[in-house]
Amino acid sequence: MIWVLVVFLLLLSAGSSWLTYVTIKKNLVLNDQREELVDTIEESLDMLEDIYERIAAAAEIPVLSDEPIIRDLLSDIKRLKNAVLLIASKVVVYGDNGEEEEDE
Fold first, then answer.
1. Rounded to an integer, what distance in angstroms lies between the CA atom of residue 20 and that of residue 12?
2. Domain that includes residue 19, residue range
3. Is the pTM of this model over 0.70?
4. How many folded domains does the chain comprise?
């Protein structure tokens, strides 16, 4: 009877070890994917910052025409500028929180 219990415990221990190995392996893969995602987000933020600077400069130029199409276009540019700022601020805040957690 004791041998059955010992064999059962050995099987449970082997299964637990295998599951631990698989879990650690998947966590390492997910960590690499997360680092790639962070790098991609940083590159995208750099591109968005360049585009934002151009849009902000274009939005500040006074327009000499009062046509509705031009007013709508300027309005859309200003809304786009605000949307880019909103997205960038949320991503940057998210990235800052992650860096603070890693430092601790």
1. 12
2. 2-103
3. no
4. 1
